[in-house]
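Request: Not sure, any thoughts?
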Amino acid sequence: IRKPYNLYRYYFLSEKQTNEFDLNWNLNPMDSIRKLYHYKPRSFAEGLHYTFLFSTILFVFIILPVSFFVKFLIFAFFSFLFTVPMLSQFFFSALPILTWVFFYFSASKIPTSWRPPISVKYLPSMETIFYGDNLSDILATSTNMFLDLLAWFPYGIIHFSVPFILAAFIFLFAPPTALRSYATAFGYMNLLGVIVQSTLPAAPPWYKVLYGLEPADYSMTGSAGGLGRIDKLFGFDMYSSNFANSPVIFGAFPSLHSGAATMEALFLSYLFPRFKPLWWGYVFWLWWCTMYLTHHYFIDLIAGSCLSLICFATVKYTTLPIRDRNKFCRFSYTKLEYVNLISLDPSPNYHPLND
């Protein structure tokens, strides 16, 4: 333990300067309660942000099929996390991600009578209209063990670990508060994606392979698609049961695998722009994986990436600090600078001609 700490202290804390960006180590919840009591949104957008997230969490609490006592315990636990200053500085920033996780895992509890019909024909039809053929069908026609493993590694392993690794890199090497922007963009991208998946449910390519264009209903179980071959290859159930009992079975559109990969590429390009081809190569690799494993159509991937670009652009031009390439880590910063939208105006001196 001592050696890693000494390395961290030597390479990072040696750059540290006392400033307003220091972490808050206060444990007194009364300080947070007083701040919350006197809190007023600094802007309409901030008020909308918290209203939307807390409304979504309230909806989750309403549909959650547990007793009032259990709901009270959950509420008490998260009240503790959000009132202790040392913890709340992280959990308030992570609120979009927490809201997404809550909503995703409770999506299957939404009463069937509230849910819209499942579209089976829309995505394959749009795929053919836009791209001339069903790209997922073409890529999944020929399979073998090598391609299965090549698709499994990014889709089934890297996808779940990269967000945490990237968060650590952003915390260490990006300016202070950049991690908040990452949490906001990543959380909103996933949350909005799941909301779209729940309001516009659509069958993935594996459904067409198993059932053709027969009508789908919410009593059906999901499928691991090509990942089922990985379970057979290794001889134990890693994916089949999880996908069969997924909270969002008919969530093909938009692809959040594509959205997550795009978001990761955008933030990695922000951190380490020299390796942009590598980051975007990963996105294209994952695109191939999703279609080869019959989990998404190409139109799903484009929609997921577009959603990610919108969320990233929003934080880039509002809250994401500019990274100074001459700074080594977060502790090197004494002030933060942000994108100046006025300076980006391509025609600042333009004046309309008089009639």
